[in-house]
C-alpha cells in the first residue's frame, strides 16, 4: 500500500520534473540528498532452484524511502539517474551495500550464495571498472564468486569496449549475467562474442507462456540454447504454478518471481533463508 502510494505521488512529481530544467535540477538535488541522507535501501528477491525449492541467489533491487512520498520504485528514478550521471554514485552505493550485506549473511552462518547487482551501462563503461569493483570487494571482504553483475544488452553499446570490460570482470572472478534477455537487439551476436555466465529470460516472455504459443516456443528455445552454449539460465517474473511447471519441464533450473517471493527487505529475506520459502519444491507445488 505504501508502495502504491509512493509510486503514484512520485509519478505526478516525476511528470512535473520532466517539464522544466528547474524541476530536473530539483530532482537531481533530491537524489543527491537521498544519497547523503541514506534514503536508499536495498530489497532482495530470492532466486530459487525449482527442483529443490532452495534459495540459490538473491537480486539486490534499490528502493528510495522518500521522506514525503514513501517507498519509491526504481522505475521512477533510475532512468533519470542514468540520464544525469547520478547513477554512478548511486550504483556504487548499491554495489557496496549489496556486497556488505552478502558478507554479513555469510558471517552470520548462512550458506554462501551469490548476490546479483544491476549495473547500468554508464557504470559498466566507466573508467577503471575493474579497479572500482575490486576495491569494493576488498573493502567488504566478499569473495568475487559471490557477486554477480547484471547488464542489459543495448543497441547502442560499443561491442569491443563491452567485450574488454567483460574480460576484465572475468579476470576479477565475478559472474556476469545478461538481464532482460530477449528485449535487446543483437542478442545472438552478443551471445557469441561476450564472455558471460548466465541469461535472465525477460519477464515479458514468461508472462504469456501458457497462453501464447509463440512465447512458449521462444522461452523453450532460449533455455535449450543456454544448455548448448553452457550458460546458466533463470526465468524472471514467474507468477504462477503453470509457468513454473512449463519452465521445469523445459529444463530451466532457476526462477525469480512473485510465485516464490517479491523483493523483500533484509529481515524478511533472512526469515526465508532460515525457514525456506512456503511453496518450496516443485513436488510440493504440484500437490
Ligand atoms: P530488473 O533488474 O529486471 O529487476 C526485476 C524487476 O522485476 C524488479 O522490479 C522486480 O520487483 C520485478 N519482478 C520480479 N518478479 C516479478 C513478478 O513475478 N512479476 C512482476 N510483475 N514483476 C516482478 P523493480 O525492483 O521495480 O526494479 C525495476 C528495474 O529497475 C530493474 O529491473 C532494474 O532494471 C532497475 N533497478 C533496480 N535496482 C537497480 C539498481 O540498483 N541499479 C540499477 N542500475 N538499476 C536498478
Ligand atoms: Mg536485474
Ligand atoms: Mg535490468
Ligand atoms: Mg530483468
From TrEMBL:
The chain holds residues 335 to 621 of 621 of the full protein. Keywords: Membrane, Transmembrane, Transmembrane helix. The keyword Metal-binding does not apply. This is EAL domain-containing protein. The keyword Transmembrane helix applies. Residues 24-277 form the EAL domain. It comes from Paenibacillus roseopurpureus.
